[in-house]
Amino acid sequence: MERMECEDRITLKQFWRVAEVLDCDLQYALVPRKPVEEMVRMCARLKAQKWVNKTNEQMTLEVQQLSRDALEKQVERETDCLVRELPRDL
After folding, report:
1. How many Å apart are CA 73 and CA 88, to the nearest integer?
2. How many domains are there within the chain?
3. Which of 25, 73, 83, 90 has the fewest Cβ atoms within 10 angstroms?
């Protein structure tokens, strides 16, 4: 079994069977590589950038586009809002 694991040839089903035979519980988990708060903020920022950029494109057509500083501030405001509200699609 250990050799199969080293070679990436063992399945979860096989692990369950071994655990049962050994009278053990099998536990597996996904462990984030970064703090969850950081991951949430990163996703929120990406979503905020899309929204702000889309809005700014429309404003550009009307010759009302925002400056780079104003765009960045708006992205930060939208990011903060998304982090506070945590919508399901985040």
Report:
1. 24
2. 2
3. 25
